[in-house]
Design goal:
This protein is α+β, with helices and mostly antiparallel strands and 254 residues long. 43% of the residues lie in helices and 19% in strands. A hairpin with a 2-residue loop joins strand 3 and strand 4. Helix 1 packs antiparallel against helix 2, helix 3 crosses helix 6 and helix 6 crosses helix 9. The longest helix has 19 residues.
Length: 254
Amino acid sequence: MATLNFIEKYSTIRNLGLHNHSYWEIIYVISGSGTFKFSDLNDISYKAGDMICIPPEIYHSNAPRKGFQNINLTLCNWQPKFQTPKLFSDLTNKDLNYINDLSYILDITYRQFHSLNRNNEILASLTDLIVKYIDSLTAGKKISTTSKLIESNIISGFSNTDFNLNAVYEKLPYAKRYLQKLFIKEYGISPSQFLMQTRIDYAANFLSQHVDNDFSINEIAEKCGFSDQFYFSRVFKKMMGVSPTQYKSRSQTQ
């Protein structure tokens, strides 16, 4: 069960340098805008009403603009369906049937967490409500035909080292920027992040299924669409927490 480590409201702009955490970080944007930057992953721009979920061990920095206010919380023991940074847009009016405003849920949680008479059972229930809310955003979401075509092209072409997302965009009768924004809105990550996640997921599965075969890191990288084995190893460790070699060794002992 997910455990809330900390929750706080911030209204002072803080430009933190590149850093990471051993826990999940969730930022709900009350007002203002800005950009999160990640090592080896695309930037995520945000605005009021957005929520950004950042997995453990992912190096990131935040560059907020004037007027930025947010609610920041950290969680451990949480295993959502996604394992890369994810943006959820325009949540202010999302309907959760019995509570229709995420900021309201977070505000109650904030006040309970900082209460002199904190009730841990209530806090645990509120934490469970938050993660269920996030889970609901990733389940049963209607995806447009356009985004499905981008997904299909990525899945069928990710193993090709010459695969180019621009070639995919050119097949569709829309501007590149529109296609990227649509994909982010519907999947929570950009097409390039989805491509990277697909490649690393394939690599992890390949390593788990071929623990007794002596494939070189370069061979595995090429099978996943990476032309540079060092870049592949760096991205793999960033997203999985361990190097490809360590991941394979761990799979051998399981």
